[in-house]
Amino acid sequence: MKNILPELRAERGWTQAELGARLKVSRQTVNALETERYEPSLSLAFAIAELFQRPIEAIFRPKRRA
Amino acid sequence: MLDIENSLPQSKACFTSVEVPMESPYWPKFAVRGVVSSQWAYWCSLASAAMSVTFIPPGSVRTLVILTPTLTALLCVFIAYWLYRQSDEYIQLRLLRCVTITAIVVMFCTLGYFFMELFGFPHVSLLWVNLLGWSVFNVQLLFVVLRAR
C-alpha cells in the first residue's frame, strides 16, 4: 500500500514522534507506515484520515500489480 | 497542544492500575524495568529452588521454596501480556513475531532433547530449555521495546 504520509507530515512540519503522539502510536509505527513496511488497520487509517482531514483513499493507495 | 510530559502514571499504588501510554517518553524505561526485574526474580527463585534440594531439609519450607518459581514465572507472563496490551498495533505485530521465533527455538530444543534421550546421552534438565526459551523471548522483547521509542 502506497501512502503520502511523509508529504502530509512535512507540510505541517511535524516530526515522526509528534505524528505518533497525535495518533497515539509509537514513532517506530509511523516510520514503518511511511516506509511502507506496514499497512495500518482500518481504525488507524481512519485516525490518520481524520487527523489530516482527508479521505482514506486520498492518503493510501494500493500498489498497482505488474 | 499535546501534553506528553504529563502522561506519567497517576498512581503507583497498584501495578495493574498503572497506565503509561506508548507515546510517553517514559514507556520504554517503564517496560524495560518490568521485563528485567521480572526475569531477575524468576532466575533468583529458580536458583533458590535448585539449591533448596541440597541445603534445606525435607518439609513444608523446602516445598514452599521449590514452588516459588511458579509465582515468578506467572509474573513474567503477566509482564509480557501487559506489554502486549500496552503496545500499538505495529509493536503488537512485532511481539507476535518474537513469540513465533521463540516457539521455533523451543521446538528445536525439545526435539534435540528428545534425540539426546533416545540415544542415551546424559540427561539434561528440561529446565534449560525453559530458561533458553524465556531468554530468547526476553531478548527479542527488550529489542522491540527499546526500538519502539
Please give a structural write-up.
The complex is a heterodimer of chains A (66) and B (149). Chain A has 66 residues and is mainly α. Chain A contains five helices and two strands; from the N terminus they run βαααααβ. Chain A has helices spanning 5-12, 16-23, 27-34, 42-52, 56-59; strands at residues 2-3, 60-61. In chain A, helix 2 crosses helix 3. The longest helix of chain A is centred in the C-terminal third of the chain and has 11 residues, at 42-52. Chain A is globular, with a radius of gyration of 11 Å. The two termini of chain A are 14 Å apart. Chain B is mainly α. Chain B has one domain (31-148). In chain B, helix 1 (27-55) runs antiparallel to helix 2 and helix 3 runs antiparallel to helix 4. Chain B starts with 26 loop residues before the first helix and ends with a helix. Residues 4-17 of chain B have low confidence and may be disordered. Classes of the chains: A mainly alpha (66), B mainly alpha (149). At the A-B interface, helix 2 and helix 3 of A face helix 3 of B.
